Amino acid sequence: MTRVLMFGWEFPPHIAGGLGTACLGLTKGLAKQDVEVLFVMPKASGDEDQSAVRIINASDVEALYHTTDIEEYWKKIRFMEIGSNLIPYMDPEHFEREVGANRKHGRKEEKIGFRNKYTFSGKYGANLMEEVARYAIVAGTIARQYDFDVIHAHDWLTYPAGIAAKRATGKPLVIHVHATEFDRSGENINSFVYELERQGMLEADRVVTVSNLTRNIVINRYGIDPAKVFTVHNAVDFQSYPELEVERGVKEKVVTFLGRITFQKGPEYFIEAANLVLKAYPNVRFVMAGSGDLMNRSIRRVAKLGIATRFHFTGFLRGQDVQKMFAHSDVYVMPSVSEPFGISPLEAMRSGVPTIISKQSGVAEVLKHAIKVDFWDVYALSDAIYGLLKYPALHRMAGRCGLDEVNTLKWENAASHLKEIYQGVTGK
Q1: Residue 209: HSE in the Cβ half-sphere, 13 Å Cα cutoff
Q2: Is the pLDDT of residue 157 over 70?
Q3: What number of other Cβ atoms are within 10 A of residue 31's Cβ?
Q4: Which CATH code for domain 238-406?
C-alpha cells in the first residue's frame, strides 16, 4: 500500500472554492486505489469527511525546530503588507476590516515568531503569508512524525510546506497545480507568489496540472522541464448529489453564474450577455451566485443597464445550497477568462443543467456536450443562452447528453493516474 502525506489548505465542508472539493474527490478516489492519505490542513473543524482520509490538524501540532532551520529555509523571504489580489477568496470589505484591525491594535509582524503551537485561521486573511510560512515549519515536524512514501502538496499556499517535508525526510515531492498566478491576476502578477510557485515546481519530483492548458503555462511561463509535468483532469463526486425536489419560486427561466466574482471568472461578460438576452427573451432571470472583489462593480453595472429587476445576487453559496441552485437553473454559464479546469460545469451537468463554458478553460478539453464560446464574445454567449432557453428540444438534448458525459468523469480514474505518478517516483 502506498502512503501519501498530503498538504492542503481547505477540506469540505468548510471550503471557499473548488480546491477543497478537488481534494475531497481525489482522496476518495485514492482510497479506492489502495492508497492511504494523511491529509494535513492548517485548521480542522472536526466535521470533515474522514471516510477515506485521516485529517491532521496543523494547529494541534507542536512545532519543533531550531532557529537555524528557519533562517536557512526562509532567509530569502521578507514579510510585507500585501494587496488583496493575494487573497483570492476574500471580498475587499472583509480585507479592509482585517487590515484595519491590525493597524488599530498595532499588530505588525515582520518575522516568524513561534509558541510551541500555533492556531492557524485556515482562512485567506490579512496574515496569509505569515500562515504560509508557519505552516511550512510545522510541516517539517509533521513529516518526521509519520511514515509515508510520497509528499503531495496542493497549490502555492502549501508548496513551502511540501518542500519543508521533503527536506526533512528526503521523500519525493509531488505538487498539484490547480491554478497559477497568471490565472488569478492575468499579466499583472505578484512576483512574490510567482517565485513561491516556481520554487515549488523546481523542487518537485513531479508536477501535476489539472489541464493541458495549465501544463503549457507551467512549462512556458515557469520554465519547468516538460518531462516531469503531467496532466490529471478533475472529475465530479457522484455521491454528493442527492435527488433534490425544489419548488420554483419564479415562473421565469433561470440562468446561473456560480463562482467567485473576480476578474478570473469573467462576471462582467455574463452581465453584458444577460443584457443582450433580455432584449430578445424577457421571460428570464439571471442569478450571480458568489462573492468577490468585483461584486460592487457588478451590482453597479447591472443597475446602470436597467436590468436589476431581472438580475439577482445571492452571495457565496456552499454545500446543499449549491445543489439547490443548480436544481432551480435552466442554464449554467462559466465565462472564465482563465480557468485551469473548472469543476462547477461538471456539477451543473451532473444536475442535468445545459452548460455553456469558455474556450479558455481546462474543462473544455474533456467536455463535448457543453457549448463553448470565447469568454470575450458576449454576442456568441448571448446567442447560446437564447438558443437553450428558446428551443426546448435543444435544451433537453444538451441536458441529457451532458449528464451522460459527466457520468464518465470519475475521481477514481483521476486517482488511478495519480497512483501511477506516485509509483514513478517511489518505485512501488
Answers
A1: 25
A2: yes
A3: 17
A4: 3.40.50.2000
Parallel/antiparallel/unpaired status of strands 371-373 and 355-358: parallel
> At the top level of CATH, which class does the domain 2-235+411-426 belong to?
alpha beta
Global pTM value: 0.81
Give per-residue burial for 40-74: e unless 16+ CB within 10 Å, then b.
Answer: bbbbbeeebeeebbebbbbbebebebeeeebeebb
d(CA 204, CA 173): 5
Amino acid identity at 243: E
Q: How many helices (H) and strands (E) does the chain have?
A: 15, 13
Residue 359, CA distances (Å) to 270, 324, 340, 362, 365 in order: 15, 27, 11, 8, 9
Q: Which of 313, 246, 248, 235 is nearest to 274 (CA)?
A: 313
Beta bridge partners of 5: 38, 151
Distances (CA, A) of 145 to 2, 54, 165: 17, 14, 11
Measure the CA–CA gap between 204 and 405, rounded to whole angstroms.
34
* Tens digit of each residue's pLDDT (9 = 90 or more) over 270-290: 999 999 999 999 999 999 999
Q: Can you tell me the mean pLDDT for 49-53?
A: 85
DSSP string, 106-134: T----S----SS-----S--TTHHHHHHH
DSSP 8-state class, residue 396: H
End-to-end Cα distance, the chain: 9
Contact between 173 and 203 under an 8 Å Cβ cutoff? The reply is: yes
Is residue 195 within 8 Å of 189, Cβ to Cβ? no
Cell of 24: 475531497
How many whole angstroms separate alpha carbon 428 and alpha carbon 287? 49
Alpha helices in 47-206 (DSSP H): 67-74, 92-104, 128-145, 155-169, 181-185, 191-203
Q: What would the DSSP string read from start to end of 378-392?
A: HHHHHHHHHHHHH-H
The residues, any chain, with a CB within 8 Å of residue 33's CB and separated by 6 or more, are 412, 415, 416, 418, 419
φ, ψ of residue 257 to 5 degrees: the values are -115, 125
Contacts of 166 (CB under 8 A, 6+ apart): 143, 151, 172, 173, 203
* Residues carrying CATH 3.40.50.2000, the chain: 2-235+411-426, 238-406
DSSP state at residue 373:
E
